[in-house]
Amino acid sequence: MKAFIELLVKAVVDSPDDVRVDEEPGETATTYKVHVAPDDLGKAIGKQGRIANAMRVLAKASAMKEKRKVYLEVVGAPVEFGAEPK
Description:
Number of helices: 3
Number of strands: 3
Order of helices and strands: HEEHHE
Largest sheet: 3 strands, mixed
CATH topology: GMP Synthetase, Chain A, domain 3
Shape: globular
Strand order of the largest sheet: 1-2-3
CATH architecture: 2-Layer Sandwich
Distance between the termini: 28 Å
Radius of gyration: 13 Å
Helix content: 25-40%
Structural class: alpha+beta
C-alpha cells in the first residue's frame, strides 16, 4: 500500500525524488503521511483538495480488498533527520 501511495503522489508532483511516505499503523486503521517538497504542496493537494481526495479514494478502495482502513494525510516538507518539527 505504501508503494502504491508513493507512486500516486510521484505522478502528480514536479519533484518526485522529494516524496516520502511514512506509515503509522494503528489499532483500527493505518495512517499514511505524505511528505512533499514545499513547492509541490499545492500540486499534491490540488484545487479545493480534489487531488488529495482522489488519492484518498484510491487508497481506501485498494485497502478494502484487504479489509483494512487507511487514512492519507498530505503534509508539507519532510522533517530532516535530527530537526525538531514546528
